[in-house]
What we know:
Elements: H1 9-16, H2 32-38, H3 43-52, H4 57-60, E1 66-71, H5 88-102, E2 105-110, H6 116-126, E3 132-135, H7 142-153, E4 158-160, H8 161-181, E5 189-193, H9 197-208, E6 213-218, E7 221-222, H10 232-238, H11 250-253, E8 259-262, H12 271-275, E9 282-285, E10 304-307, H13 322-331, H14 339-351, H15 370-387
Parallel strand pairs: 1-2, 1-3, 3-4, 5-6, 5-8, 8-9, 9-10
Antiparallel strand pairs: 6-7
Amino acid sequence: xxxxxxxxxxxxxxxxxxxxxxxxxxxxxxxxxxxxxxxxxxxxxxxxxxxxxxxxxxxxxxxxxxxxxxxxxxxxxxxxxxxxxxxxxxxxxxxxxxxxxxxxxxxxxxxxxxxxxxxxxxxxxxxxxxxxxxxxxxxxxxxxxxxxxxxxxxxxxxxxxxxxxxxxxxxxxxxxxxxxxxxxxxxxxxxxxxxxxxxxxxxxxxxxxxxxxxxxxxxxxxxxxxxxxxxxxxxxxxxxxxxxxxxxxxxxxxxxxxxxxxxxxxxxxxxxxxxxxxxxxxxxxxxxxxxxxxxxxxxxxxxxxxxxxxxxxxxxxxxxxxxxxxxxxxxxxxxxxxxxxxxxxxxxxxxxxxxxxxxxxxxxxxxxxxxxxxxxxxxxxxxxxxxxx
Length: 389
């Protein structure tokens, strides 16, 4: 366990005072000559140029390197539906991470509505200001429709990090965890606990990467074709998973499984259930801030353990993905973020841990490894150039 200082409330409030981000000028204005170039009359030349060729906005305005971080505050961290304003500290933090780790500008956009159509229409209207849209902390199942419809209507990258960022980093960690235990993705049996935005996205990316046996669980237990009460997204994923027709709660169906991936709630997994898994089980207990099971309870049972926390080894953290994802998308002038780009990002993250450095406590690179964002950006740009529309 890594020792990290636990800040007091007073220290946290001090760090967040007046917000964590600001707006700075790239063109300091110290004399009238500079003023005339930055603003009137010189700026009119840029306006005319963009009017004649809108693509020039990507080069001569912030639209080429700025992301809108958009939320309605309905699924903030593990706090739930706390409203957009209460979610602003998270959005500010994300903007700071975009800049720090990817050199990408980002700005929070809070939407005071939970209406799907209003959210979509609002984003469509503000989109010209930005080079990309990062959807954040929007509850399922609405988040699926919002992302899908925005992708259909916009020609800039749209990325729901709670879905795809989580899936990318999870897959990267699993690639390396499987190397540690000498198992293959196509052969292992995987249980995903949590069938919201993250769980379904993780399942889809694992399937695209060659996983052969996946079962998802929600609060009612294993999801299977024909189960009553499934929403449309769960019905779609049910048709692609649980080939064995497993029934029961997550702790009941873990017997004989190889991998547990948790994107659910604390204490959802028992140590007894982990003991029923196949030899050298892999456990990704990623509920945040409190995992599905405390690692110390299964340290002698599981071969590899990962969490979403920074005070345990193997933190599955989305910051390993989204800065490089948008950096690469912008560099390639991509108009979308595709599954191929997500797969490329996962492989790039995994590759940042050299094979001779892999161990049960070292399957994922540090968020402070400068090679990660660069590696992801390069892989993402290459994937767009090769497979993009």
